[in-house]
Amino acid sequence: MSNERLMKVLLGPLMSEKSANAADNARQFTFKVTTDATKPEIAAAVEQLFDVTVDKVQTIKVKGKSKRFGQIQGKRKDWKKAIVRLAEGQDIDFGAGA
Questions:
Q1: CA geometry: angle at 92 spanning 81 and 84, to 5°?
Q2: Looking at residue 11, which CATH number applies to its domain?
Q3: Residue 97: pLDDT over 80
Q4: Which of 17, 79, 88, 97 matches a 20 to 30 Å C-alpha distance to 72?
Q5: What does the pLDDT look like over 36-64, one tens digit per residue?
Q6: In Å, what is the CA distance from 49 to each residue of 7, 11, 46?
Q7: How far apart are CA 30 and CA 85, in angstroms?
Q8: How many CB atoms within 10 Å of residue 96?
């Protein structure tokens, strides 16, 4: 896997109350990833960017919602999220310097 590909796999962290509880209780962090990303690519990208050891990766494909804009029927994009569990003693701090 190339460095360039690994830098494009993660699109950003997903911050919600549910993901914050998972991070505190089970060392699980949630990321929005490209739809064609594989589990080994996601693990390698997280390890490279945050200098941590990944224990497990789970992925979920999220279907885009159907929406109406007046008479026009529209649809939001489908996207993929990854739940990454870190090894014991590892942590990611997104609020560093805040």
A1: 30
A2: 3.30.70.330
A3: no
A4: 79
A5: 999 999 999 999 999 999 999 999 999 99
A6: 8, 12, 5
A7: 9
A8: 6
Cα separation, 18 vs 29, whole angstroms: 10
Number of domains in the chain: 1
In angstroms, the CA 27 to CA 39 distance is: 17
Q: Which two tokens stand for residue 31?
A: 């990321």
Instruction: Answer whether residue 39 is part of any domain.
Output: yes
Task: Please identify which residue in the block is written with the tokens 């560093």.
Answer: 96
26 falls within a domain:
yes
Model confidence, pTM = 0.88
Q: Residue 93 has what pLDDT?
A: 82
Look up the domain containing 67 and give its range.
3-86
Mean pLDDT taken over the chain: 92
Rounded to an integer, the average pLDDT of 13-31 is 93
Query: Residue 96 falls within a domain, yes or no?
Result: no
